[in-house]
């Protein structure tokens, strides 16, 4: 009897161990499959801010295609699957940077096109490049394009490049009276800031030029004027290439040509100011230094420099509330993650999840 009981007990223990082993194996393979899909095919990203309004809203869950431009091979292989920088719920790093591999891009369906909405690893940060924070912006200029912003108006290759219904700016709307929340909701204006300064009563608003034209049709019933708010020059040192002497601001920027692979630059004082930070950070040159008028590589002065990579210039559609290439510089081609294709789900974070669901944005295509 004792032998029979002991055998049954061992069978139950063996079955339990087998069940646990099967469960662990299932979880492991599911995690690996999810990680493979996330790396190779598509990812899901949540919009954390309003920098892409009115195209993308805070709380949008956006599907990002990796197959459009081609998936990148992992540069930091020692990383827990389905994590980014830290283990979820902790501040513990989810990776080890002991091994860093060269990154390659697999063949994709297309190249990056002008006005694609792209997700990329920000060039700013201390983590390995493929583990830096994800940003989402609109690619407004391709390698070789000339970017110029004058009084907020964007020009690419000397042509106006902003549709009136897509790009959002900061305006001051001078009013004769206090406007109701219903007025702003009806006109799709979020978070207006009221001013009570004598002679300057009104609201700072963020909206599109098309909406401004609509607002001016109700003049002078309650609105006296709607004028753009242009930034003064006190933040010139924060704008790429971080040289106040250029006099550039986010509203008056350039002209600046986006580097392309094979583009040759004369290493004079002006080009060292404009392109020196990019060459030093992203071109992979270990022994490079600049003086005000010269470039030195491996101890030898070079009169001309040839770029090794393609670069892109990206901006948020909400131009006056967006950190983008005006502040961080060019986006290297190997930092681009994929193309935003669809809003899978959208939820207003100021409300509970279900009551805040924006039903009109479900399966909304991004463009």
N to C succession of SSEs: HEEEEEEEEHEEHEEEHEEEEEHEEE
Can you summarize the main beta sheet? 8 strands, antiparallel
What is the molecular shape?
flat
The assigned structural class equals alpha+beta
Please describe the structure with a list of short key phrases separated by commas or semicolons.
flat
In short:
By secondary structure, the protein is α+β, with helices and mostly antiparallel strands. The chain has helices spanning 2-40, 181-186, 209-216, 269-282, 325-328, and strands spanning 42-46, 60-65, 117-121, 134-141, 146-150, 153-156, 159-160, 169-175, 193-197, 200-207, 223-228, 253-257, 264-266, 288-290, 295-297, 300-302, 304-306, 311-315, 331-332, 336-346, 364-365.
Verbal overview:
This protein is of the alpha+beta class. It contains 5 helices and 21 strands. The strands form 5 sheets. Strands 1, 2, 3, 4, 18, 19, 20 and 21 form an 8-stranded antiparallel beta sheet that branches. It has a 4-stranded antiparallel beta sheet with strand order 7-6-5-12, with no helix packed on it. The radius of gyration is 26 Å and the shape is flat. The termini are far apart.
